[in-house]
Each structure stands twice: as structure tokens, then as C-alpha cells.
Amino acid sequence: MWRKSAPSLLLVLALGAAASLAAQTPRADARGRLEAPEAAGRPADVVTERDNEELVKAIEHKIRCTCGCNLDVFTCRTTDFTCTTSPAMHRMVLARLDSGMTQQQVLASFQAQYGEMIFMAPPKHGFNWAAYLMPYVGLAVGLGLLGTVARRLFRATPKTDAGVAAPGVAPDAASPEELEKLKRALEKFEA
């Protein structure tokens, strides 16, 4: 009796193991996105109302995630579910706010811990003003150079009384001998 049911029993066990394994393996939809992001690396954190407070968002938009993604902490933690750095930084922000720190104090504590590179934009003090002013200075210098070149180009062309350049009129810098030499050279080509 066991001989007849043994292959059936093995088949049932194999199918059960395959179904169990398939349930544990993360699956992707038609576009390649995981159906369950928590299965890809870490369980999803429970999102509370505190996580999306405007003060928390404002602080997290100002500090850079240190995982190397070059995003701010809020964007990294809400879009990259495999990053473990941004949730840790988010917990640090919440802990510092819970300890009674203000927004400026939280930002100053991150600056003390990581340096000025933690900010998404450099603070507006000291030499950092150059980062804010240099684009405008460069634009002004470029426009000044463009205006100077354009003015020189339009001044170099002789004008008639109507303000239009006269055709075939040589500039005043040519001497009569040079004009005569030019006429003789042109006559050679016309003949």
C-alpha cells in the first residue's frame, strides 16, 4: 500500500514546498516593479502622522541623505525603499525634535555632526555668498562683453547720411596709394 501512495505523497510534498517558496520570493509586475517592496530588503516602516508633519518635511528637505543618492532625506526615504540611511536620519530628526529642539537647532546639530555638506543649499554667510552671486556677476560680465563687441562691429562699418553702410566705400584708414593698388589688383581679375 505504501508503495502505491509514496510517489503521490512525494509529489504533494514537492508541490507544497514549491508553493511555499513561491510565496516567499518577491514577484515583479509587468513593468518590473516589486509587488511587495518590503520583501526586497527590509520591512516597511509604519508611517505615522508625525512622519509627514510640515516641520519634519521642511527640515528633511534641507538636509542631504548621506547614502550617496544626492537627494534630500524626505525624498530619499519616500522614494527609495532599499535605502537604510534616510530612515535612520529621519529617526534622528524626530528624536531631536522630541527632545525640544527648534528647526534651527536641529539643522545646526546636523551641521555640527556632518559639516556644511549636509545641506542641500549652502548657508548664506561668508564665502558661500559667492555661490549665490557669481551666476549674476557672470551674466552681467557676459552681457557687457557682448555689448562691447557689438558696438565695435557696428562702428567699424562706414555709414551714409541715411545711416546705412555705403557699398564699396573703403574705411578712412586706407591711404590713396593703397586704394590705387587695390584698383589695379581688381582690374587684373576683371580682365
List the helices and strands and how they pair.
Layout: H1 2-24, H2 54-62, H3 73-79, H4 85-98, H5 103-114, H6 129-156, H7 176-190
Helix pairs in contact: 3-4
Brief rundown of the structure:
By secondary structure, the protein is an all-alpha fold. The chain has helices at 2-24, 54-62, 73-79, 85-98, 103-114, 129-156, 176-190.
Tell me what the structure shows.
The longest helix is centred in the last third of the chain and has 28 residues, at 129-156. The protein has helices spanning 2-24, 54-62, 73-79, 85-98, 103-114, 129-156, 176-190. It is mainly alpha-helical and 191 residues long. Helix 3 (73-79) crosses helix 4. It folds into two domains: 39-121, Helicase, Ruva Protein, domain 3; 128-190, no CATH class. It has seven helices and no strands.
Q: Which labels suit this protein?
A:
elongated, mainly alpha, single chain, Helicase, Ruva Protein, domain 3
In this structure, how is the largest beta sheet organized? none
CATH topology of the largest domain: Helicase, Ruva Protein, domain 3
Measured on Cα atoms, how large is the radius of gyration? 37 Å
CATH class of the largest domain, anyone?
A: Mainly Alpha
- Provide the domain count: 2
Number of extended strands: 0
The backbone outline, from C-alpha atoms, is elongated
Query: How large is the count of helical segments?
Result: 7
The low-confidence runs, each spanning 5 or more residues with pLDDT under 50, are: 21-28
